[in-house]
């Protein structure tokens, strides 16, 4: 029987929250929000299915925050939209945008929730794209300016803040695999972005700290690299995947260096003075967020550019994204972050959850038994790590609401709460009720 009674075994000070991101829920047709690279990407590649309306969170935000509170969660992770606050070419502030976050933060605080804002969750203002986007170092400086403004205007309403969400997605997924905006497929673009997004993180840390004493973190996604076979070629391929996907970001941030295996293929694409940037990138942080969903099975595959692997899926139970249930991978990464970097930094699981084909009954019930199982299996791993003494401080379920799942549009439902996109009605699913019951 799947249930979330395990929640009762966690220490009292362990924080449970839910996570969302701006572009995926807000609705950028509202409030004079500017266009981002995702609007352009959706127009070109997704038949225009974009975040124009999304969950209309801009109008329903009070209801949404109330849901979080009523369920008994203690924290809310969300992101600021850069194009909502700075929609204009002259970089002037959209007061409506700033005001929205001001009211959102007030509401969060009034409900006794701890805000966990993120500065960048993929909605780069479109004007930067015309100048090279994240391939242009100047974007990093503009990001630091934007970060400073957030700290100055809203920084009295939160302590914790994350700079970048999932730098691997911003760089590799979006500039090498071409699956996310801006949809590039080039090794040199990807490498430049893999470096610049980290530099943007570092410059933002400096900007935030120059204004206030924030508790600053970054959010890294990890995917477990399982070799397809014990053949040396597959094992080497899995190491290369691991080096690019996981080690690149953690090593640079915690050790100030890039991993050797990835460097053999990528170093020639890095800017000449990259080493001096690594000092900025590796400034000490106050916490780190880990997003975890699944594993990848890595198979040797000869490619002209030397990225000799492909990812395949295995035979374990799968989510609607075709991602396998592999909770052991979460333990693996929590131990790795704690042991390999010797930073003893507080760790939050900032995203974990699954897309599911939920069963919507006529009686306003939404059954998502598999999602309850997914959470249960992962929470068992989290508890195991806590008992080992890993400094885990909190867990955020992805996601509060069904929302815009990037290149999958609205088809994939990750929410604890069902959203009817015709009338924006929210219906708590059974998984949400399990959280409420045991929190
Ligand atoms: C992520 C993203 C989310 C996705 C989720 C499911 O940070 O990967 O934050 O935006 O919706 O991961 O794919």
Topology summary:
Elements: E1 15-19, H1 22-25, H2 37-45, H3 57-71, E2 75-79, H4 82-85, H5 95-110, E3 114-120, H6 126-129, H7 137-154, E4 160-165, H8 167-175, H9 187-211, E5 215-227, H10 232-255, H11 260-266, H12 274-281, E6 287-300, E7 309-312, H13 328-340, E8 347-351, E9 359-360, E10 366-367, H14 369-387, E11 392-398, E12 417-419, E13 426-428, H15 430-438
Parallel strand pairs: 1-2, 1-11, 2-3, 3-4, 4-5, 5-6, 6-8, 8-11
Antiparallel strand pairs: 6-7, 9-10, 12-13
The chain binds D-gluconic acid.
Can you give me a brief rundown of this structure?
By secondary structure, the protein is α/β, with parallel strands linked by helices. The chain has 15 helices and 13 strands. 51% of the residues are buried.
| Estimated helix fraction | 40-55%
Terminal CA distance reads: 18 Å
Task: Write down the domain tally.
Answer: 1
List how many beta strands DSSP finds: 13
What would you give as the CATH superfamily? Glycosidases
CATH level-two architecture: Alpha-Beta Barrel
Average pLDDT figure: 98
Sheet with most strands: strand arrangement: 1-2-3-4-5-6-8-11
Unreliable sequence segments: none
Number of helices: 15
Main beta sheet strand tally, sense and closure: 8 strands, parallel, barrel
Radius of gyration: 20 Å
């Amino acid at each position: 029987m799947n249930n979330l009674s395990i929640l009762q075994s966690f220490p009292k000070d362990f924080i449970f929250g839910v996570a969302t991101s701006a572009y995926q829920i807000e609705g950028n047709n509202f409030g004079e929000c500017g266009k981002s690279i995702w609007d352009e990407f959706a127009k070109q590649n997704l038949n225009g299915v974009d975040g124009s309306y999304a969950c209309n969170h801009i109008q329903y935000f009070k209801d949404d925050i109330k849901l979080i509170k009523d369920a008994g969660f203690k924290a809310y992770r969300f992101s600021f939209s850069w194009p909502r606050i700075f929609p204009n070419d002259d970089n002037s502030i959209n007061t409506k945008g700033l005001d929205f976050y001001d009211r959102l933060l007030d509401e969060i605080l009034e409900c006794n929730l701890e805000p966990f804002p993120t500065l960048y969750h993929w909605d780069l203002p479109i004007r930067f794209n015309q100048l090279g986007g994240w391939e242009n170092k100047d974007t990093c400086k503009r990001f630091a300016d934007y970060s400073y403004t957030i700290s100055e205007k809203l920084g009295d309403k939160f302590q914790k803040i994350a700079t970048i969400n999932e730098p691997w997605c911003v760089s590799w997924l979006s500039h090498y695999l071409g699956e996310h905006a801006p949809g590039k497929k080039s090794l040199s673009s990807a490498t430049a972005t893999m470096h610049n997004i980290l530099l943007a993180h570092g410059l933002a840390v400096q900007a935030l700290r120059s204004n206030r004493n924030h508790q600053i973190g970054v959010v890294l996604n990890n995917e477990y690299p399982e070799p397809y076979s014990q053949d040396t070629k597959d094992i080497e391929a899995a190491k290369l995947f691991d080096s690019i996907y996981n080690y690149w970001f953690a090593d640079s941030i915690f050790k100030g260096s890039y991993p050797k295996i990835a460097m053999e293929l990528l170093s020639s694409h890095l800017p000449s003075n990259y080493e001096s940037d690594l000092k900025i990138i590796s400034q000490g942080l106050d916490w780190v967020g880990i997003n975890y969903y699944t594993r990848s099975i890595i198979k040797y595959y000869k490619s002209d550019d030397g990225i000799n692997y492909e990812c395949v899926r295995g035979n374990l139970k799968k989510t609607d994204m075709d991602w396998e249930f592999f909770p052991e991978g979460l333990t693996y990464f929590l131990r790795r972050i704690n042991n390999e970097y010797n930073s003893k930094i507080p760790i939050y699981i900032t995203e974990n959850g699954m897309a599911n084909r939920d069963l919507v009954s006529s009686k306003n019930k939404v059954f998502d038994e598999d999602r309850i199982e997914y959470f249960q299996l992962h929470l068992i791993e989290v508890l195991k790590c806590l008992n080992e003494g890993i400094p885990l401080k909190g867990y955020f379920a992805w996601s509060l609401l069904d929302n815009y799942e990037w290149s999958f549009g609205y088809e994939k439902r990750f929410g604890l709460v069902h959203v009817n996109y015709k009338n924006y009605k929210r219906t708590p699913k059974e998984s949400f009720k399990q959280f409420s019951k045991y929190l």
